[in-house]
Design the sequence.
């Protein structure tokens, strides 16, 4: 690869999202900003090898993209009065390209908030974030979410049209609005992690790798919002889970439950990094859902040092979690922890308090029910629950494991 | 909204049905799956099909039907069964289709059932 091509590639990797955020925040048109930016990168690939790499590659790209954006708007016959507005909005691009004093502002946080805006369908938020902030292509995102690339491409462009037409502002929410909006950003990042996590050990290689992208988004959010304990909590949570990834499957791809994982193979650096993030979050004294979930995983991680699991602590943390976020997963997790800390009967009674309608097709509920009924020697009911868990299972390795329990 | 889950199998998978040692491994997870569909209240109907070699194929020609012994087409996978479910949307239908037990060579086609025009 030539020096110029390497410089373009480096600029794409390091600055693409920042340039996009800057342009989109001013044009309010994500799709147009993306088009203009890819045009700018294309012309860099054409001209840099001959003219040499500019002193400030970012500034060069920004100027080129700005020109394209204005040309495109002129072409699209943007309302006459909107034209000066757009030109003016993009004018400050010149400040950053000519003035060495002003650092180019990082507006990726605004981009994250737009991606998880309440006006956008929750199912589209994570894909939009992966595309705009990390630059993943629609085909890659589509495979992670098990839909056709064309369908994902359409979904993403519909969302961008909506952002433009509804005039959704590129801004950081203030005051009362912030916690709720931040929650949506955290959820969207965690959903990306979940889609990589559910696919275990490459059962479906097309889904592999989103976990890494989610970790990257999480780290970016921590960088952009260093004083937000929940952002730290989310990053810690994902790192604790990621530390165990390799041990979730045996040598032949078989499912290995947490209690049987080889703790010597858990990633110590990841666990230590997660510990640091979680401690920092705790010092801020504002507890939240992701910090509690991370704390639960930190207790599991301690098994690598102490050799056993402090189920009392885990049960207590779940108690806190269901108080602030009583999701079905947390209710089932609490029942499992209480069953371990005390006895299966107590766990079972908690499990039975969950409304039947909520668990009709929730597989982990039935897997836990089978386990607890088994421990209470209620063979017949245990078998029925296990069959239900098998029938609801999407993961072949987990299905095979459940069938071996019978 | 009704969807059909069409299950296609290879000749090897059809052969497993006749092997007493392999049969339970083939049928047990499918039985659990069907029960989960019923318990969730989405099961409408369905059937497993005998091996494709036992089929009769009727082809329309100008005069009427020409009857031949099966299978219908010489493809690697043959239709082995179908399940009809009633769910609110395709996303939910896909969720259920993904839960069908995996098996080497097995393919599943998910199709929305045609809604008769209401007039």
Sequence:
């Amino acid at each position: 690869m030539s020096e110029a091509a390497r410089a373009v590639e480096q600029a794409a990797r390091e600055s693409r999202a920042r340039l996009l955020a800057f342009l989109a925040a001013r044009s309010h048109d994500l799709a147009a900003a993306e088009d203009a930016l890819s045009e700018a990168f294309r012309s860099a690939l054409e001209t840099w090898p001959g003219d040499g790499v500019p002193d400030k590659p970012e500034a060069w790209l920004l100027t080129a993209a700005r020109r394209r954006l204005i040309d495109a708007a002129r072409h699209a016959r943007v309302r006459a009065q909107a034209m000066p507005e757009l030109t003016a909005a993009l004018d400050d691009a010149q400040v950053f390209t000519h003035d060495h004093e002003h650092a180019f502002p990082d507006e990726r946080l605004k981009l994250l908030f737009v991606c998880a805006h309440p006006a956008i369908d929750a199912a589209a938020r994570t894909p939009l974030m992966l595309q705009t902030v990390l630059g993943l292509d629609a085909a890659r995102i589509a495979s992670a979410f098990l839909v056709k690339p064309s369908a994902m491409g359409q979904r993403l462009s519909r969302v961008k049209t909506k952002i433009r037409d509804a005039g959704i502002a590129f801004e950081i929410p203030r005051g009362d609005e912030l916690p709720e909006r931040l929650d949506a950003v955290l959820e969207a990042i965690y959903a990306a992690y979940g889609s990589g996590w559910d696919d275990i050990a490459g059962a479906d290689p097309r889904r592999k790798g989103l976990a890494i992208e989610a970790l990257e988004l999480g780290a970016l959010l921590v960088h952009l919002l260093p004083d937000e304990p929940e952002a730290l909590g989310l990053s810690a949570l994902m790192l604790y889970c990621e530390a165990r990834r390799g041990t979730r499957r045996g040598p032949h791809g078989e499912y290995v439950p947490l209690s049987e994982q080889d703790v010597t193979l858990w990633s110590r650096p990841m666990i230590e990094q997660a510990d640091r993030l979680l401690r920092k979050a705790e010092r801020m004294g504002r507890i939240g859902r992701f910090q509690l979930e991370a704390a639960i995983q930190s207790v599991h991680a301690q098994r690598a040092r102490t050799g056993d699991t402090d189920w009392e602590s885990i049960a207590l943390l779940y108690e806190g979690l269901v108080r602030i976020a009583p999701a079905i997963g947390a209710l089932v997790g609490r029942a499992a922890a209480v069953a371990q800390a005390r006895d299966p009967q107590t766990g079972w009674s908690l499990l039975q308090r969950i409304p039947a309608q909520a668990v009709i097709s929730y597989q982990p509920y039935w897997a836990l029910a089978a386990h607890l009924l088994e421990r209470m020697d209620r063979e017949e009911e245990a078998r029925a629950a296990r069959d239900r868990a098998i029938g609801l299972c999407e993961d072949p390795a987990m299905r095979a494991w459940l069938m071996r329990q019978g | 909204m009704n969807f059909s889950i069409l299950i296609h199998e290879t000749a090897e998978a059809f052969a497993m049905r006749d092997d007493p040692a392999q049969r339970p491994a083939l049928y047990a997870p499918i039985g659990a799956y069907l029960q989960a569909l019923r318990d969730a209240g989405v099961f409408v109907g369905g059937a497993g099909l005998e091996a494709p070699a036992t089929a009769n194929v009727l082809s329309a020609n100008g005069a009427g039907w020409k009857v031949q012994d099966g299978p219908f087409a010489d493809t690697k996978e043959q239709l082995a069964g179908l399940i009809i479910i009633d769910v609110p949307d395709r996303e939910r239908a896909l969720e259920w289709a993904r839960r069908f037990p995996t098996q080497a060579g097995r393919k599943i086609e998910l199709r929305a059932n045609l809604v008769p025009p209401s007039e």
